[in-house]
Each structure stands twice: as C-alpha cells, then as structure tokens.
Design brief:
The protein folds into two domains: about 300 residues, 4-Layer Sandwich (Metallo-beta-lactamase, Chain A), CATH 3.60.15; about 130 residues, Nonspecific Lipid-transfer Protein, Chain A. Helix content is about 30%, strand content about 20%. It has 13 helices and 21 strands.
C-alpha cells in the first residue's frame, strides 16, 4: 500500500513497503532571500537522514529553486543516495547536484525511468519554463503527480501522455499534488498599483492558480488533490504584511473553488505532518485538527524567536559598494543580460516578446541607475520595466552573492512598468535565467 506523508511545502515522503521517495527537500535555509517554510518542516531532518541510511531511499527533486532544494540539508544525505531529477537540456541543475558529491544521479526523461517498485516520468513545458518540470510517480497500486510549481493548464503532448498513464488507474488510486499559491512579485512589489489594486490582482491570480491546478487533476480523473508547494511565507523588513499575504490558503478555501468550478476532485484536509494512504487521512495528532491561522502565527513567532528571519536578505547588514563600482557593474550586468538574450531568443523561440523592452536597474534612492534596450524598439511602442533595489542588496547582486530572483520572487526590489499594465513576464523570465548564469560566471572568474 502506498502512503504519502506531507513533510513541508513541496516535500512529501512516498512510501511503498520499505521503499521511500522524498520529494523536494527544504528545511529552513531561506529561499529567494526571504522565504521560510510555513509551517516549518514537520519531521526533523535527522530522522529523514537516518531513514536514508537504513532503507531503500531516493530523492526526487523537481528543479533548482531553493524552496525545492535546500543545499545544506541535501549535502547531508549519503553520497550513494539515488537522486532523480528531470532531464533538462541545460545541465546547470545536474551540475549543482553533482557538486554535492552524489554518485547515483538519474536524469528522468519523458519516456520514463523504472526502478524497484516505482516508475517516474518528467514533463517540461518549454513555452513556460526551460528549467522547471513536473514528475509523475507510479507505484504498483497508485499514480501520483508531483506538479510542484507547474500549475498552468497541461496541454498537448504532455496532457496526452499524462492521461495515457493515469488512465491505467481508477480515480481513487490517483493523487494530484500542485501549487496553490502565488510565487512571484506581481503585483505586490509594483509601484504602479494602489494597495486595493494589489489586493484585487493578488486574489484573482491566486484563485486562477488554484483553479488551473484543480483542472489538471480533474482532466486526468484524479479523485484526490493535495494543496502544497505554497506553504511558505516571506520575511521582508518593513514589509511585514507579506508574511500573511503570500502564505498558503486553507484547504477549505481551495475546496470552495473546486466545488464552484464543478471539478470532480476531493481536496485532502492535510497539513504538514499528516499522512494519506489513499483511503484515509491520518492526522499528526490523533485526529485533532490544527487551526490554520494559529499555525501561521506560531510559525512567524518561532522564526523570530529563534532568529531565522535574520538570515533573510533585508535583515542582514550588507555593506554597499562605491557608487563608481556600482555604476560600472550595473552597466556590465545589463549589457551581459542583453547579450545573453540576443544569443538565445531566436534559437529557443522562448518569450520572444522581450525584444523592444527597455530594462532599468538601479538603487532605490535614484542615485545610481543603468538601462538597456533589448534589441530594437518599434517607434511609439515604449515598453519599460524599472527595478529599484536598496544599495546594500543591489551591491550583493552585482557581486554575485545574491541571485536576481531574490529581488523579484523574494520581494527585495520594487518594480515600475510603463505603460502601467505592461506584462513584464518576458523580462522576468529571461532575467531569472540570466541571474544564475551571471552568478556562475562570477564564481568561475573568482575561482
């Protein structure tokens, strides 16, 4: 019998007899410079590390974001642990896993990989992301989808393949696990919008994410759905409102959306610590339900009391580089970004609408800025995306100590677009990819 124990955020422990798969491990290292798992991990890492040393144990890691792969935690697993990752065209993620010393890394293709009692298959939608993927996990009796952040409606060949596999199982044998929360800066760091506009856009975006996640479960005729991969909160100094605003939605909230949409899906009443055996949910404390609001508040208090928030970017005492060095590095950063995009955009056909955007990056006091026009801009078609960052964090970005995604996903920057309702998605996606390349290149230069 397959058992699912919810560990934290996008991490579940799948057990089939004496065989285990742990997905996307994250203990408490801040992700994106501000995120902490909320609520915290329900099983202390020591127990999972012991399990990995004594049983047939594997790790399945969907992608390289720090809320899905805690490097400190990961480095403690035995080097011979089987590590399963999607087969990406870029090998940056593979290299990151190798650097931890693992000797048994399997790149799971879309055609699938079988071992012991499991079969895994990876699914990548290149129109959405080139470095994020969902995994299907089959056991002898059950079909599980580890969708993590891939909430967008599944279409085309991916949907056809997923349905083909899923159709070999009855609805009550299938569990779909997917993100049900917002995981980027729009609209909460945008200066263009009033507080009311931000709240309305935020709510509509979250509801759409939930709806599409449930639709995917409905489309493969999965009876069960787990609300996960949104169980985190952002700790940003002087933006305490973000903690609650971006933390997870309750299962009741998601069930209401499911019912209103008419999807034939059961949203499991699970929190980290609970388990599910495809018949019943076993609560962590003998059937006692935990108050969701209290769980969040106690998580916030715990992280403050134990000092975890002071590991987040906005609470650290970063020093600023000189204005002269900042100007020089800003120019290098944006020129490198333009070269990165223009060398790849035609070949990959990925978010080609980035051409014609002006990208401006600078300090929040306006004393030091730089801008670049990506390609050519059609006359009278002004498309500008501005990023404002405190000098200390901007310095850390330019020195390669902070990743660009900390600015947008981690809420360390503020954004302004012109025109007001310009969709900055293409700029954001390309900057997300470039940020990792920029850091890697600096490490190689300084090695």
């Amino acid at each position: 019998m397959t058992n699912i124990k919810y560990i934290s955020h996008a991490s579940v422990l799948i057990q089939e007899g004496e065989n285990f798969i742990l997905t996307d491990p994250w203990f408490q290292k801040p992700a994106f410079g501000s995120w902490l798992p909320t609520p915290p991990m329900s099983v202390h890492p020591v127990y999972l590390l012991t399990l990995a040393n004594c049983n047939n144990f594997s790790l399945a890691i969907s992608h390289g974001h720090d809320d899905h792969i805690d490097d400190n935690f990961l480095s403690m697993f035995p080097e011979d642990t089987r590590v399963l990752i999607p087969e990406y065209a870029s090998k940056g993620f593979l290299s990151r896993i190798k650097q931890k010393g693992f000797e048994n890394i399997i790149e799971v293709p879309n055609s699938g990989f079988e071992f012991d009692c499991f079969k895994l298959r990876s699914y990548i939608n290149l129109d959405i992301s080139r470095d994020d993927a969902m995994l299907s996990i089959e056991t002898p009796s059950n079909f599980i989808v580890h969708a993590n952040d891939n909430w967008q409606e599944i279409v085309g060949d991916n949907l056809q393949q997923l349905k083909e596999d899923a159709n070999r199982f009855s609805p009550e044998q299938k569990l779909y696990m997917s993100q049900c929360n917002l995981a980027d800066g729009w609209p909460n760091v945008y200066r263009n919008y009033t507080e009311k506009e931000q709240q309305d856009i935020h709510t509509n975006r979250v509801d759409n994410i939930i709806d599409k996640s449930l639709l995917n479960a409905h489309n493969i005729n999965a009876q069960y759905f787990l609300n996960y991969a949104g169980h985190a909160a952002a700790f940003v100094k002087e933006r305490e409102d973000l903690k609650e605003k971006v933390s997870f939605k309750s299962n009741n909230y998601i069930q209401k959306i499911c019912m209103n949409a008419g999807y034939n899906v059961d949203v499991l009443d699970m929190l980290p610590g609970d388990s599910f055996d495809f018949e019943n949910v076993e609560k962590q404390f003998g059937g006692a339900d935990l108050c969701v609001d209290t769980l969040k508040e106690e998580s916030f208090s715990f992280y403050e009391k134990y000092g975890n928030i002071y590991e987040c970017d906005s609470y650290k005492q970063y020093a600023s580089i000189s204005s002269e060095d900042m100007s020089s590095l800003l120019n290098e950063f944006l020129q490198g970004f333009e070269e990165f995009v223009l060398a790849r955009v035609d070949r990959t056909n990925f978010n080609t609408d980035i051409i014609g955007h002006t990208v401006i990056l600078g300090s929040d006091d306006g004393s030091c800025t730089s801008e670049i026009l990506i390609g050519d801009s059609p006359e009278n078609d002004v498309k500008t995306v501005k990023f404002f960052v405190t000098k200390p964090i901007l310095s850390e970005l330019l020195l390669g100590n902070v990743n660009w995604e900390n600015l947008y996903i981690g809420y360390a920057a503020e954004v302004e677009t012109s025109p007001k309702d310009l969709n900055a998605r293409a700029v954001i996606r390309w900057l997300s990819m470039y940020g990792y390349v920029y850091q890697r290149n600096l490490r190689l230069q300084n090695a």
